[in-house]
Amino acid sequence: MSRHRIVNPPELAPARGFAHAVVAVPGQTVYLGGQTGADATGRIVGATLVEQFDAALANVVAALRAAGAEPDHLVSLTMYVTDVDDYRCHTSDLGAVYRRHLHRHYPAIALFGVVALADPAALVELVGVAVVPD
Q1: Is the pTM of the predicted complex or chain greater than 0.85?
Q2: Dist. CA 71–CA 127, nearest whole Å
Q3: Rounded distance between C-alpha atoms, residue 36 and residue 90, angstroms
């Protein structure tokens, strides 16, 4: 289990599904490259944001574990989506997918709407930083 300290100051709006800040304990830092909903061949799987988010989170977890980290070692996660309205319309389904992969660990998270991603078929790309405690 991570020993990182989640900080949600009472003078800020309640943090739901993210943390306002994370104080990472000393350890080895893992920087994740952008993870889309691509399979092992590099092909985007899934036609919907929810399907691609599911595959992208699975890729995040696979990359973390390959680097010796676990999902609860994430201290930040940046989400890039090509349609923020679509994201908002599916927050319940996206939340269920998130919890299946990352459980109820909510690091510092940011969501950005972008015009396009490197792979034209991608609807979401995830970038994260994890710290594996010493």
Answers
A1: yes
A2: 13
A3: 18
